[in-house]
Each structure stands twice: as C-alpha cells, then as structure tokens.
Amino acid sequence: MNIKQIKQQSYTEQKDLEAVVAQAIEIAKRKVDSVEVGINKSTGINVSTRLGETENIEFNSDGVLGITVYQDNQKGNASTNDLSPQAIEHAINMAIEIMKYTSPDPYSGLGDKSQMAFDSLDLDLFHPSDLNVDHAIKQAAKAEATALDYAEIKKSDGGYFNSSYGIRVYGNSEGMLQGYRASSHSLSCCVIGEREGHMERGYAYTSSRDIAALKSAEDIGLEAAQKTVSHLGARQINTMQVPVLFSPDVATGLIGHLASAISGGAIYKKSSFLLDSIGKTILPTWLTIKELPHLLRGVGSSPFDSDGIRTFDKDIITHGVLQTYLLSCYSARKLSTPQKPLKSTANAGGIHNWQLLTDNDTQTFEQLVKTMDKGIVVTSLMGQGVNLVTGDYSRGASGFWVENGVIQYPINEFTVAGNLNHIYQNIVAIGNDIETRKSIQCGSILIEQMSIAGK
C-alpha cells in the first residue's frame, strides 16, 4: 500500500476500534458502576542486517483491548486480543469475576469528569511510511557498510530499521471516547572496533515521528564508527573526586531519576528521597523544567494520559523549586487531604516532553569541557545502582579524561557515585547540545564534583 492508502485504512481502523470500545463500555455499564476501556494497536516492520546480509524481517499488526471495571470500590481487569462481541463480553465477565476477589479501595475509580479529554487535540503525530521492506533493508545495510569502511571497525552487531504506526483509543462510562494515531521511525547501527587487541562497541541511532526527518544512513554509520573508534585504547584511572560532564544521551537519564522520584506512586509509598519536597529548592535557582505535552510531532506528546485525563502544560521546577508531583487519578486521591485536595496532573503512564530552561547563557559541549578544565566526560552508563529511597547513585561508566580544558584520552572501568540530592543542587551548567530523541530534552550536564572509583 502507498502512504495515502495507509492513512485512509488507519483512519477507518481507528473508527472501527472506537466502535469496539464504545460497544464494550455499553455491555459493561449494564453490569457494574463504572468502566474504562482502552486499546493500543501497532502496525509496522522491523528489519535487521548483519554484514550486508538481511538477518531478520518482522511485520507486526497487533493490539490488546484492556477493560477495567469498578463496583463498590472494588476493581477488576481483563484483556483480550479477540475483538468479537462474544470475546469482549467474556473479558468483561472475567474482569467482574476478578473484581470480586479484590479488596475495596476508596481511591480507585475513574478520574474527575471535569479533567477528561472529551475533545482530543491533533498534535501532528501521524506520519506513516509505506512500510517498504526493500527500502528498510537498504537503509540498515548502508549504515553498516559506511561504518565498516573505517579501518579500525572490524565487526558489526547489525543495522536496524523500524517503521510503525499506532492507534490509541480510550473510553469510559462517563461518556469520554477519544482516539488518535501516531507514527515512529528509527534507524540504528552498532559496530565493534579493534586496536592492538583492545575492542570497543559503539552505536548511533536516529528516530522521528516523520521518516523524512531521520538522519541519513551514511550519517548514522559514520557516527557509529567515530564513536567506537574514539573509545579505542581506553585507560583506567585512579580513584578521585573531580567534576563530571554527562553527555546529552546519558544526561537525560540523570533527569529521568528526578521524574521517577516525584511520581505519585513513589510519594504515597514513601519510597522517594524527595518526600515533602514541594516548594523546596532541589535544583540550582537558574534552572527551570517545564512539561509541554502538546508540542507538534513531539516524541512525548499526547492529548490525554492513560486515565483519559486531558494533558496540559505545567511547571515541574521553577527557578530550582519543585512545583508539583506527577500524579495519576489514583495517586492524587491517595495523597489528598481534607485541607489540600489534589487532582491528577495527567501523568498516568509517564511524562510528556520535559524541557530544561536556564536563566544563564547555555554553552556548547566544547565550552563545557573547557569550563570543567580537569575532570571526566561520561558517555555511557551501565548497571542499576540508583536507590530512589535514599538518592544514592553509583553507576559503572566509560567516557573521556579531560585536562587543561581538552579531552585527552578515553577511559573505562570506573564508577561515578554521589547522592542525587547533592548532584542536582551542584549542577554547574547545561549545554545547548539538546537531546531531542527522548521525552526528556536537555543538553550535556556539568556536575561540580562527584566521587570516582577507579583502579
């Protein structure tokens, strides 16, 4: 099919899925107090190559209908990938049966009707490709071939191309029924370099809602090769305390720990180092974080969250001060008090396009390296050494040693450690090399000082 046909077919499919969700709601409403129904259906291709040969081709077109019923503060869930009326009624009955065995929970139930997204914004998220397998194979193979042209690139872990689109529909017994379509495309390459018996693996990728906005296969292959070769000959360093500069693709993870720590679930379970932190300064006063869920073509954009709550722009951090926790309908009720009732922040299911803004002039990556003068650039992290209860942070890492404001040589087999409270408050600067492929969009982050465990 061509793109025009795919657009028409997916539109028809969305309307069909909306009818299925509406039908499920009507059946369930006759049996329980309230119900919510959602479906996410994905269609696409995944192609991988290795050394120029096609290794794998996958086509997928699947989706699961999820049904949640509520009665007398009890809740039951069931799902089905069979969308026939008989299968849907069977799933509803199973959800009701499961509900009977659950304990009453006064915080469960549908969200506040006044917050529901009865009108769904068009955020320009749908830019499907024609799912051309030949084109996908050529792109993956070309990225590989470009990387393998480098003399010190000896092996390939593969070229990968993905193109897909999804349809999301959500409805509930309050009368909300909305859906939207979104696309996703990516191209990546992973290779292995060798020098004097020392081997390193490196990769590069590009992703976008619009396939036309992807970087070229040649650019991805070149980037993968250059990143890999730059880490050959890595040395070990001694244990010390020095400034640390996190490159953009790992800096987003550092901010991701903040998002996890202020999630409603972590707060009501009292499993966060940021308990009772609303109104407190947790980042430098020159730093602000905003959530912008309605950015056109945004990777984290969505007109509503998984509770059906209408998304909206909000301040997460203003001049270093925490403004809000990230609340679903359930966690909002759980954390409410008679003195301070809370509402959902439309973050059920995750965050939506965080942007870091500074009062200071941003710097390029090279300027940040010069500002650091002596220290470490971290380009990759490994391990799960983050304790969100205490904020203790310890991750295996690799990167580069910096001296006199210049990168000197690659380093590996060291650990960066500290406490997230201290790390966040000691951010010195943020670069203008913004990572745009993730829901958290920020540049390199320079930390004043961290502990390094080396040889």
Automatic annotation (TrEMBL):
Which interval of the chain is the signal sequence?
none
> GO molecular function terms here?
metallopeptidase activity
Protein name as catalogued: Metalloprotease PmbA
Metalloprotease TldD/E N-terminal domain mapped to chain residues: 35-98
Q: Work out whether the entry's keyword set contains Hydrolase.
A: yes
> Which keywords annotate this record?
Hydrolase, Metalloprotease, Protease
Q: Which residues form a coiled coil?
A: none
Q: Which InterPro entries match?
A: Metalloprtase-TldD/E_C (IPR045569), Metalloprtase-TldD/E_cen_dom (IPR045570), Metalloprtase-TldD/E_N (IPR002510), PmbA (IPR047657), TldD/PmbA_N (IPR035068), TldD/PmbA_sf (IPR036059)
Q: Where is the Metalloprotease TldD/E central domain?
A: 127-232
Q: Which family does it belong to?
A: Belongs to the peptidase U62 family.
Per UniProt, what is one Pfam family of this protein?
PmbA_TldD_3rd
Gene of this entry = pmbA
Q: Does the keyword Protease apply?
A: yes
Metalloprotease TldD/E C-terminal domain sequence ranges: 240-454
| Gene3D superfamilies (UniProt xref) | PmbA/TldD superfamily (3.30.2290.10)
